[in-house]
């Protein structure tokens, strides 16, 4: 869980730092929502990191772990479907982004706490 939180944080930090340099992030070339970025940075990343830390200690972490794992699974499944629809609709050539979202969805869905 902590790794997933850090990966999400690094992914968005890379886009933020790129944008602060004056160039638009590559992710904004396609249809994306900034609301999703705000949701992930403001809620998902802290939940994953705190849930992972609490999971190491006592049982209250298990509840946080299960809820954030469910939210991560739903988010990544929705992103996977969105990536596939973009690929089909606009003929995108970037299969790596689809594979990345599907892999994250599978990890979040089938991992054990």
How is this structure best described in words?
This protein is 80% helix and 0% strand. With 113 residues, the protein is mainly alpha-helical. It has one domain.
In summary, what is this structure?
The chain contains four helices and no strands.
What is the strand and helix layout of this fold?
Elements: H1 2-20, H2 34-57, H3 60-90, H4 95-110
Helix pairs in contact: 1-2, 2-3, 3-4
Number of strands: 0
Helix content: over 70%
Look at the helices and sheets and give the structural class.
Answer: mainly alpha
- Could you report the average pLDDT, rounded to the nearest whole number? 75
Give structural attributes.
113 residues; mainly alpha; 4 helices
